[in-house]
Design brief:
This protein is of the alpha/beta class and 164 residues long. The two termini are 24 Å apart. It has helices at residues 12-23, 36-44, 46-58, 76-87, 139-162; strands spanning 5-9, 29-30, 63-68, 91-96, 119-120, 123-124, 131-132. It is 43% helix and 15% strand. The strands form 2 sheets. Strands 2-1-3-4-7 form a 5-stranded parallel beta sheet. The protein has a two-stranded antiparallel ribbon with strand order 5-6.
Length: 164
């Protein structure tokens, strides 16, 4: 099986540690992580600079994976990334990451489905795009579940997107 090139979308401040765990699994190739300093430099350029950065990071990717933390849903740039991925014909999926521990060893509250608020031709994206919620509470089991399934989820997301 080919390693898919993916784009990871997540709420940076609270979830970057959780996102790094998934990126480092090596099951899919993700976009390069951005440092705090780089992100500050990008954001100083305003909305158009942020859009350009996101667009360049998504280029050449076959799927976007939204890592759903407690406050991911409804965020301006998460919505932009979801809409861009869909409009560019990329596979799209969500993974709830609230039960992965952060750098302090803490888990968080489960976040809302970020695809619920967005629609395509009158159909909520949440009725099209799959969002996976690992069925475990223990962080190590959540990690293993994501690692065992993420490649299949990406392939399924690409198949689903091909139908629309």
């Amino acid at each position: 099986m080919v390693t898919r090139r993916t784009f990871f979308s997540f709420h940076y401040k609270p979830d970057n540690w959780r996102a790094a765990q998934i990126r480092n699994m090596g099951m899919v190739e993700g976009n390069a992580p951005v440092s705090d300093n780089d992100w500050e430099s990008i954001t100083r350029g305003g909305d158009s600079a942020i859009r350009r950065w996101i667009d360049s990071q998504m280029s050449g990717r076959s799927c976007a994976i939204v890592l759903v933390g407690s406050n991911t849903s409804g965020r301006k740039w998460i919505n932009y990334e979801i809409e861009k991925a869909w409009n560019d014909g990329k596979g799209l999926l969500g993974i709830h990451i609230h039960n992965l521990k952060n750098v302090s060893g803490d888990q968080s509250a489960k976040g809302a489905n970020p695809f619920y608020r967005l629609s395509v031709d009158g159909t909520r994206l949440s009725n099209i795009v799959h969002t996976y919620d690992p069925p475990y509470k223990l962080s190590t089991y959540v990690y293993a579940y994501i690692k065992d399934n993420i490649s299949d989820w990406v392939e399924e997301a690409i198949r689903i997107r091909g139908k629309y």
